[in-house]
Amino acid sequence: MILGKLIGIALVAYLLGAIPFGLILGKLIARVDISKHGSGNIGGTNVLRTVGTEIAIIVVILDVGKAVLAVVLAKMIMGSDVYPIINFPLDWRVAQILAGLMVMAGHNWSVYIKFRGGKGVAAYFGSLLPMCWPAALFGGVVCILIAIFTRFVSLGSILGSLSAMCVLIALVLFHEFSPVYLIYTVIGIIMIAYQHRSNISRLQTRTERRLDDKVAVDKIDSPSGKSR
Q1: Distance between CA 114 and CA 126 in Å, rounded?
Q2: Running DSSP on this structure, what letter comes out for residue 39?
Q3: Could you tell me if 14 and 192 are in contact, meaning their C-beta atoms sit under 8 angstroms apart?
Q4: 169: exposed, middle or buried (C-beta count within 10 Å: 0-12, 13-18, 19+)?
Q5: How many angstroms separate the CA atoms of 156 and 122, rounded?
Q6: Using an 8 Å Cβ cutoff, are 130 and 68 in contact?
Q7: Residue 173: its pLDDT value, please?
Q8: Which of helix, strand or coil describes residue 88?
Q9: Mean pLDDT taken over the chain
Q10: Which helix (H) or strand (E) holds 85?
Q11: Between the CA of residue 163 and those of 109, 187, 199, what are the distances in Å?
């Protein structure tokens, strides 16, 4: 029974996370295949650079929303039952962690687009919201502020996700918050760092693209019939 629930939670979360909103809205609204422009990622940053701020904001909201939904559904599916496994309580909090990580995996390696995707930042913060909203909000604000003031979204993403974990650690140490969610933040940050490995290299060599760097695009319905 418990194994079936966990498999179902993981599958639902992955399929939700795998929905490529950036790619879908880029094609529907702007007639641009963002996977063929800029970094090729389907996340908000590449959407911003290729098709503009308005669509990018919508994409980020949807990417956060799908993560929130997956984690909320995980708690509902798991219910209030607790399954002790080797003195470890397997409950709805563990189900939330599983859902959050699977949403990130789906977003980064989407089955719908040949296992390509984004970098998991919006999914990370969206999943964290139902688990620990103060950490998610603080980390999100740090991410945005650093991106705005330094013009490096990758730096904001990495430091923002680390800031969220720091808030969570403080809540665990001083407010008796459940430490189990640290599992999510640690693995989530590792996934974000892995997806940003090329950005980290460019930051070190001072060749990283900035927030306001625009990408020239061709419409899907351009005379050539293809994006360049």
Answers
A1: 24
A2: T
A3: no
A4: middle
A5: 12
A6: yes
A7: 95
A8: strand
A9: 91
A10: strand 83-85
A11: 25, 14, 19
Mean pLDDT confidence for 18-38:
93
For residue 58 the two structure tokens come to 């919508």
Residue among 99, 81, 77 at smallest CA distance from 90: 81
Region 36-50 average pLDDT = 90
HEC secondary structure over 117-173: CCCCHHHHHHHHHHHCHHHHHHHHHHHHHHHHHHCCHHHHHHHHHHHHHHHHHHHHH
Q: Which of 196, 203, 38 is nearest to 120 (CA)?
A: 196
Alpha-carbon gap, residue 44 to 27, rounded angstroms: 14
Residues recorded for the chain: 228
Burial-class residue 4 by CB neighbours within 10 Å (0-12, 13-18, 19+): exposed
Q: Which amino acid is it at 220?
A: I
| CA atoms of 146 and 93, how far apart (whole Å) | 30
Q: How far is CA 24 from the centre of its chain?
A: 17
* 227: confidence class by pLDDT, cuts 50, 70, 90: very low
pLDDT(228) > 50:
no
Q: Give the pair of three-digit tokens for residue 67.
A: 């993560």
pLDDT score of 39: 85
